[in-house]
Amino acid sequence: MTSNIKSVAFFGASAGVGLAALKCTLAAGHKCIALCRDPSKLTVIFPSESTPNLKVIKGNAHDISAVSQCLQTDNAAIVDVIVSTIGAKPRGMTVDDPDVCKKGAATLLDALAQLRSTGITGTPHIIGCSTVGFSRFGRDIPIVMIPIYNLFVKVPGADKVVMEDRFAQSGESFTIIRASHLVDGGSDKTIRVGIEDPKTGPESKAVGYTISREDAGRWLAENLVLKIDSKYVNKNVTVTY
């Protein structure tokens, strides 16, 4: 493996933003490891014979043993980049697991600590997928969207906030990507970007209504995985049209 090829661990990449980011990362020739409760969801899209750079591990993002496997390269080092796009599924007015992201973040950080305690080294950049609507520094969604977020996103949003805090306070290199309301279908629309420092607040703002899962995932891969500008490191980054 040459030095310009990265190793990237994916959690939650069987659909949506994570899947789009995985596709882009594989297309660029990088080594990817994906944790999936049902590996067939990925192997049907990426057959092993035509996708040698992808390793799929069966398991849950709350299982420290499975997560630890996903964080290690074949050379017994910690991966270069970690992409976590796990999230809860809607269930009526709430979601199936209101703690999915906070538990996932805790497990991931515990797994890193456990690996390092055994002598396995590495300083990965962690990318966590969150949502707009819950900034501590003022409104980051259109006014007309506030009731929708209060009704339908309040519970998963609170979970995302805890996840953000755990990564920000971990001492690890991180970027939180906050997508506006996610829709299906790629586009050629311009993606606007806002940057917020978790401690001091907004450095630039981008307030919008939607972005597609495909475009958000592509932006994530192109700007946070394939390369990363220092202005995004240890920041919360909003992406929207």
From TrEMBL:
<dbReference type="GO" id="GO:0042602">
    <property type="term" value="F:riboflavin reductase (NADPH) activity"/>
</dbReference>
<dbReference type="GO" id="GO:0004074">
    <property type="term" value="F:biliverdin reductase [NAD(P)H] activity"/>
</dbReference>
<dbReference type="InterPro" id="IPR016040">
    <property type="entry name" value="NAD(P)-bd_dom"/>
</dbReference>
<comment type="similarity">
    <text>Belongs to the avfA family.</text>
</comment>
<feature type="signal peptide">
    <location>
        <begin position="1"/>
        <end position="20"/>
    </location>
</feature>
<dbReference type="Pfam" id="PF13460">
    <property type="entry name" value="NAD_binding_10"/>
</dbReference>
<protein>
    <recommendedName>
        <fullName>NAD(P)-binding domain-containing protein</fullName>
    </recommendedName>
</protein>
<keyword id="KW-0732">Signal</keyword>
<dbReference type="InterPro" id="IPR051606">
    <property type="entry name" value="Polyketide_Oxido-like"/>
</dbReference>
<feature type="domain" description="NAD(P)-binding">
    <location>
        <begin position="12"/>
        <end position="223"/>
    </location>
</feature>
<dbReference type="InterPro" id="IPR036291">
    <property type="entry name" value="NAD(P)-bd_dom_sf"/>
</dbReference>
